[in-house]
Design a protein that fits this description.
Shape: elongated
Largest sheet: 4 strands, antiparallel
Radius of gyration: 18 Å
CATH topology: Nuclear Transport Factor 2, Chain: A
Order of helices and strands: HEEEEH
Number of domains: 1
Structural class: alpha+beta
CATH class: Alpha Beta
Helix content: 25-40%
Length: about 110
């Protein structure tokens, strides 16, 4: 993730990154981001928008996922919440075999 983002910024002269909107979803935050600058190779203006979903655990950012559309980002948050809810119920029934959900966040009782 870091390498991909660094490569993207390396291709832009004077990159500007601006957070334009925040949606608080509990332990996750959806952030609309604008990235702009001038392409080093082409000299053309670059102006892109994307969204990321940050997941926090114990006061630390543990995951960032990038999405092209607001709909995709919000669907990812909704899916994650449903998944965590199911895993939490399952964990209460079988705590010795709980492995957490696919997002990599541990289920809690």
């Amino acid at each position: 993730m870091k390498a991909r983002f660094a490569a993207m910024l390396e291709a832009i002269d004077e990159p500007r990154i601006e957070a334009q909107a925040f949606i608080d979803a509990g332990d996750q935050t959806v952030i609309a981001v604008r990235l702009s600058g001038r392409g080093k190779a082409s000299g053309l203006e670059v102006d892109g928008r994307l969204l990321h979903v940050g997941t926090e655990k114990d006061g630390k950012q543990v995951r960032i996922a990038w999405y092209a559309t607001r709909t995709d980002a919000l669907e990812a948050v909704a899916w994650s919440r449903r998944c965590h809810s199911r895993m939490a119920r399952w964990h209460k029934e079988s705590p010795s075999t709980c492995t957490g959900c696919l997002s990599g966040v541990e289920a809690t009782s």
